[in-house]
Amino acid sequence: MLAQLLPWDKQRTPTMAFLLYDDWIGWAAAVLSRLATEHGDLVTFLTVGTLVHESVFIGSNLLYTLLASIPSCRQRWKIQPKADPPKKLVFMALVHIYIFRVLVQLPSTAAYFYIWKRCGGSMHMHPPSAFTCCWQVLTCALSTEVMFYSSHRLFHHPILYKNLHKRHHEFKTPVGVSSEYANVVEDLVVNLPSTLLPPVVMGVHPLVLFLWLGLRILETVDAHSGMALPWSPFHLLPCFAGPLFHDYHHSATTKGAYGVLGLMDFLLGTDKDFKEHMRRRKLAKAATKRAS
Fold first, then answer.
1. Which helix (DSSP H) or strand (DSSP E) does residue 197 occupy?
2. Which of 218, 217, 223 is nearest to 174 (CA)?
3. Which pLDDT score is estimated for 152?
4. In angstroms, rounded to a whole number, what is the distance separating the alpha carbons of residues 112 and 253?
5. Residue 19: C-alpha distances to residues 9, 10, 23, 277 (Å)
6. Which has the least CB within 10 A, 93, 144, 193, 260?
C-alpha cells in the first residue's frame, strides 16, 4: 500500500526521489486524478481547494497571532506595536468570513470550476513541467496585480467606498483575519475574480491552480498581518509590496497603495504618498535611536 502511494519506483532511493520534481508532481497528479475518479471532479476540486484555502488561512493567521503575542517579537516587528483591532470586530469578521464561505464562496467556486473546464481544465491532465508551473504562476501573479489594482482602486471611489468597501477598512490596524473581511459584492467583483480568473481562463493543471491559491492566500494574510517579518518570503522578494504597504493603505484610505505587488502603483504613481510615509518613518526611527 505504501509503495503504491509514494512517488518512486524500486530503481530509485527515497533520497533521490525528494529531489525529483517530476516524480512528486506525477504522484500528486495521480492521487488527484484517482480522487476525482472515485468522488467526482467537482467534489474533489471543491474539497481540495477548501483544504488548501483553510490550511493556509488558519495556519498563517495562527502563526502571526502567536508572534504578535510575544512581547519581543511584537516590539521588533509589529508595524503598529501599540495598537490592536477591537476583539469584537475580529470575532464579527470571522463570523462573516465563514458564513460567506458557505453561502457565497463555494457556489462561486463551483461556477469557476465549470468555466475552467470550458477553458480546457481537467482533473486528469498530464502533470505540468517545472517550467510550465513557474510561468503560469508568474502569469497569475501579474494578471492578479492588474485586475486587483484596477477593481480595488475603483472601489475607492467615494460612492463605492461608502457603500461597499468601507467594511474592509473598519480595520484601521489590520490583522490576518481582515484579509478576507469584505462586503459580499466586493468579494464577487474584486477578490474572487482577481484571484481565480487568471488560472481558470488559462485552463491550468489543478495542482498549479491549488499552488497559486495557497500562495495568494498566504500573500494576502501576510499583507494584512501587521507584522513586517524580515524573513517573510514576501519581504525577501522585492516584487511584493508587503505588509508595510498595505498597513499604510488601511491607515490612509484615500492615498494609494492599491495593488498586490506594487507594480501598478509604481507605474501609475499611486505609491508616492507611501514612499513619503516610509521616508518619515525612517527619520523618526533614526531620531529615536539617537535620543536613546
1. helix 192-202
2. 223
3. 95
4. 31
5. 14, 16, 9, 44
6. 193
Tell me the helix, strand and coil percentages in the chain, rounded to 5. 75, 0, 25
Q: Which amino acid is at 292?
A: S
What sign does the dihedral 96-99-101-107 (CA atoms) show? negative
Beta-carbon contacts of residue 281 (< 8 Å; ≥ 6 apart): none
Question: Could you please report the per-residue DSSP string of 206-255?
Answer: HHHHHHHHHHHHHHHHHHHSSB--TT-HHHHSTT---HHHHHHHHHSTTS
* pLDDT tens, position by position, 38-68: 999 999 999 999 999 999 999 999 999 999 9
Name 78's bridge partners.
227
Is pLDDT at 140 greater than 80 in this prediction? yes
Banded model confidence at residue 12, pLDDT cuts 50, 70, 90: very low
Q: At what angle do helices 206-224 and 130-154 cross, to 10 degrees?
A: 50
pTM confidence score: 0.89
> What's the one-letter identity of residue 182?
A
Q: 36-45, 84-93, 130-139, 249-258 — which is least confidently predicted?
A: 249-258
- Number of CB atoms found within 10 A of residue 175's CB: 22
**The C-alpha cell of 249 is what?**
493603505
Burial class (CB in 10 A: 0-12, 13-18, 19+), 113: buried
CB 261 within 8 A of CB 240: yes
Q: How confident is the model at residue 237 (pLDDT cuts 50, 70, 90)?
A: low
Residue whose entry in the numeric block shows the C-alpha cell 490592536: 84
**Per-residue pLDDT, 234:** 74
| DSSP tag of 179 | G
Phi, psi of 251 (to 5 degrees): -90, -15
